[in-house]
Automatic annotation (TrEMBL), chain A:
Record-linked PANTHER family: FE(2+) TRANSPORT PROTEIN A
Keywords on record: Iron
Protein's UniProt name: Iron transporter
Stored Pfam families: FeoA
Keyword Iron on entry: yes
GO molecular function: transition metal ion binding
Residues annotated as domain Ferrous iron transporter FeoA-like: 3-74
Domain of life of the organism encoding this protein: Bacteria
SMART domains per the UniProt record, alphabetical: FeoA
From TrEMBL, chain B:
Database matches in InterPro entries: Fe2_transport_prot-B (IPR003373), Fe2_transport_prot_B_C (IPR011640), FeoB_GTPase (IPR050860), G_FEOB_dom (IPR030389), Gate_dom (IPR011642), GTP-bd (IPR006073), P-loop_NTPase (IPR027417)
Family: Belongs to the TRAFAC class TrmE-Era-EngA-EngB-Septin-like GTPase superfamily. FeoB GTPase (TC 9.A.8) family.
UniProt main location, coarse: membrane
Name the UniProt record assigns to this protein: Ferrous iron transport protein B
Species in which this protein is naturally found: Algibacter mikhailovii
Transmembrane segments: 279-297, 335-359, 413-439, 451-472, 509-529, 592-616, 636-656, 677-698
Keywords, ordered alphabetically: Cell membrane, GTP-binding, Ion transport, Iron, Iron transport, Magnesium, Membrane, Metal-binding, Nucleotide-binding, Transmembrane, Transmembrane helix, Transport
Gene name in the database record: feoB
Classification of source organism: Bacteria, Pseudomonadati, Bacteroidota, Flavobacteriia, Flavobacteriales
Entry binding sites for Mg(2+) 1: N22
Domain named FeoB-type G: residues: 4-171
Length: 78, 699
């Protein structure tokens, strides 16, 4: 199922499927935010924004409005 | 023959690059600026085996060669310019073992410039905690490099690193990625146009213009015209390049690195849960701030009292030792008290820099950014504005430079404009001396009234900064993309050496920078206060003796009257009394007026100025504080520094824009005179009005 990253819930894991390169700066891509890489929500800040993520082993925080431009597929735990 | 190797230290932020720099150079380092820009340039010298010396540059931390800020741009400018005297013989890329994958991206980029590149894998001591093991031989072979596995914390592997730097000629310059593979057609054409140039270099120059703005590089001027693609296309190619680089890195690490997650101990998530908690996170942050202010006030007071009395006796001593005359007076009344006025604040400033260094080094500062972003955004700021606002408590100049990593221009501009409201260390001397004069010493729940007042002043500074940001956000019509990304680094126990070097370096810069101005101003002031025009000054003794002839005062009393009469009719007294009408409604006398005027160059001059003026007119009291306490109000009688005039003065200093260097830096960072001029006028007028209201209301 296709979602965008801003809908990820705490502890959930997903794989990045597409990144809108017009809206996402190169810097974020270079930090590992690329199609095929795994992403996990570590924590949400108070007031639900920004998101503290583990992307491809890197820990970073981005705002939800940026996360909305990153498409993901959730990994379901069996 | 001794020969010097140029070494460039490069790495992502938070990889311990500066620790490596400190481990290699120790105290043999100096900090300056790159010519023409305000980016800090750190360089040092390191002795290598066999009598070889290395000149080491610690380049600003960057995630890649595609610069997005002035600091990052320094790295690429150096690496593209073979004629630069600092052009490295060897690039040393510092990585963190826990973030090897991401850190290697930069490594592959630098390697592709065909500069001998050495890989340093730092924080090796963390491997066992995280269940990481590395096949160094395999990695060296796959990455075509030599690897130094080191731990700056445990001081391991540094000798091996020095050895590898010495033998830099053995390192292969084979590229990691064939840049042609991302778009064969395009790069074939580029190659045909510039057959003698390295393709990846050309590519960097082309994309750099897109990313960061045009920079002139003689060899490459023609390249900028080679734009057969739109910037959207170029961006897509860069994305493709990044993906290819990661594919390469993933392949290398597949066999070279194993991570046994079951052995990993996860301290990070436990700490994060508490420190970024929606309630406890803020409570902890508040208590950390509270501790800092209590420390600055209470712990620093002991060495400060010592320094104060030491300078008083030094001044006394020179007066007795040197033959009496104008020169002795200049030293004992002008220079020594002026210098004392700055030296006394070293303990506090050192404490402040110490706390800021610890917050940065430990990784806690990023959590604060994360915690505050949503709130700050409501005021038109970014979570990243917290760092300038906190380091603005040390000095607005580095704070304004620290805004460079705020991605959105509007958020950055607002941060720059409001940062000077935070209580910088130059205000501290003024606050401290006035607080100690007008605020009683009692305690409230274990916290001193004086410390609480200081805390309130800091909060007032932050509050005003945030509030004016809110107004600016509404008023300024600037469209700019809002974007925010911050790395959340691992928690680290700060290394003593790193913290100590930072504190020494910053304190030194503060003392010498301010010291020069204060020395010059105190000499000028002394002259102006010791000489005057006309009868009233030159015949002071006669005038006073005739005036009080009938009153039978003792000799000491007469001398005092003469001194104050002289001061009043000196050059400075005349100037001071000319401006007095404009500041009297604020509760100040002309001496404070002079101090305010002279502190428009730099706030901390205030105390030095008062020290110089008062020591000219007063020989009874030794310390600055006692001299100020002894001053009387010329119109109202009673002590000059009352609760009302003290508060009024505190508020004036809280809001007024009195720092030439800050204005200069704002001009440079915003590239326009408009913003610094607005800052100067608005802040100072606001300060005057608030101080006026406070005094009239409280008196």
């Amino acid at each position: 199922m296709q979602d965008n990253l801003s809908e990820l819930k705490r502890g959930e894991q997903a794989i990045i499927t597409d990144v809108s390169s017009i809206h996402i700066p190169l810097k974020l891509l270079e930090m590992g935010c690329l199609p095929g890489n795994p992403v996990k929500l570590v924590q949400l800040a108070p007031f639900q924004d920004p998101m503290y993520l583990n992307i491809n082993g890197s820990h970073l925080a981005i705002r939800k409005e940026t996360a909305a431009h990153i498409l993901i597929e959730k990994v379901t735990h069996e | 023959m001794s020969k010097q190797i140029n070494v460039a230290l490069i790495g992502n932020p938070n990889t311990g690059k500066t620790s490596v720099f400190n481990a290699l150079t120790g105290l043999n380092q100096k900090v300056g600026n790159y010519p023409g820009i305000t980016v800090e340039k750190k360089e040092g010298v390191c002795k290598l085996p066999r009598g070889v010396k290395a000149h080491i540059i610690d380049l600003p931390g960057t995630y890649s060669l595609n610069a997005s800020s002035l600091d990052e741009n320094v790295v690429i400018e150096l690496l593209l310019n073979q004629n630069d005297k600092d052009f490295p013989d060897i690039a040393v890329v510092v990585t963190d073992v826990e973030n090897l994958k991401r850190n290697l991206l930069l490594f592959t980029q630098i390697k592709d410039l065909q500069i001998p590149t050495l890989l340093v894998i730092n924080m090796a001591d963390r491997m066992s905690y995280k269940g990481i093991s590395l096949d160094i031989e395999h990695l060296e072979e796959q990455l075509h490099t030599k690897i130094a596995l080191i731990s700056t914390r445990k001081n391991e592997g540094i000798d091996k690193l020095k050895q590898l730097i010495t033998n830099y000629k053995d390192i292969s310059v084979k590229a990691c990625l064939d840049i042609k593979s991302i778009d064969t057609n395009y790069f074939e054409n580029l190659h045909k146009a510039f057959p003698n140039q390295l393709l990846y270099k050309l590519w960097l120059v082309i994309t750099q213009d897109v990313n960061f703005g045009k920079t002139s590089r003689n060899d490459f001027d023609a390249v900028s015209d080679f734009k057969t693609k739109s910037s959207a296309d170029l961006k897509r190619l860069q994305q493709k390049e990044t993906i290819k680089r990661y594919q390469y890195i993933n392949n290398v690490l597949k066999a070279g690195q194993t991570i046994d997650a079951s052995k990993a101990k996860d301290l990070r998530s436990k700490l994060d849960r508490v420190l970024t908690h929606k309630f406890w996170g803020y409570v902890i942050f508040f208590f950390i701030l509270l501790t800092i202010f209590q420390a600055i006030y209470d712990w620093a007071s002991v060495p400060m009292d010592l320094i104060d009395s030491a300078f008083a006796s030094l001044s006394e001593w020179t007066k007795n030792m040197l033959p009496p005359g104008a020169f002795t007076n200049l030293i004992s009344e002008g220079i020594i008290p002026g210098l004392g006025g700055i030296v006394i604040f070293i303990p506090q400033i050192a404490f402040l820099f110490l706390f800021i260094a610890v917050l940065e080094e430990s990784g806690y500062m990023s959590r604060v950014v994360f915690l505050m972003d949503r709130i700050m955004r409501r005021f038109g700021l970014s979570g990243k504005s917290v760092v300038p606002l906190i380091s603005g408590t040390a000095c607005a100049i580095p704070a304004i430079m620290a805004t460079r990593n705020i991605e959105s221009w509007k958020e950055r501009l607002i941060t720059i404009l409001v940062t000077p409201f935070t209580t910088c260390s130059a205000r501290l001397p003024v606050y401290l001396i006035i607080i100690s004069l007008v605020i009683p010493e009692g305690r409230f729940f274990g916290l001193g009234y004086q410390a609480l007042t200081l805390m309130l002043l800091y909060l007032l500074g932050f509050g005003t900064a945030v509030l004016s940001a809110y107004i600016l956000n509404k008023v300024l019509k600037i469209k700019s993309k809002s974007f925010f990304v911050i790395e959340m680094p691992n928690y680290k126990l700060p290394l003593f050496k790193n913290v100590a070097l930072t504190v020494i370096e910053k304190t030194k810069a503060f003392v010498f920078g301010a010291g020069k101005i204060i020395l010059a101003i105190s000499i000028i002031l002394w002259f102006l206060a010791s000489y005057g025009p006309g009868e009233a000054f030159n015949n002071a003794e006669e005038i006073i003796r005739t005036e009080y002839a009938s009153e039978h005062l003792d000799e000491a009393e007469i001398q005092k009257k003469i001194a104050s009469h002289k001061l009043e009719h000196s050059y400075i007294g005349i100037t001071g009394r000319a401006i007095e009408p404009s500041i009297r409604p604020l509760g100040y006398d002309w001496k404070i007026g002079i101090a305010i005027v002279s502190s428009f160059a730099a706030r901390e001059v205030f105390v030095g100025t008062l020290a110089t003026i008062y020591s000219v007119g007063n020989d009874d009291e030794e310390t600055i504080k006692n001299r100020m306490a002894a001053e009387t109000n010329p119109t109202l009688g009673g002590p000059l520094f009352t609760f009302a005039s003290g508060i009024s003065l505190l508020l004036f200093y809280a809001f007024a824009m009195q720092c030439m260097s800050t204005l200069a830096i704002v001009k440079r960072e915003t590239n326009s005179w408009k913003w610094p001029v607005l800052q100067l006028i608005i802040m100072t007028v606001f300060a005057y009005i608030v101080a006026l209201i406070a005094f009239q209301f409280l008196k």
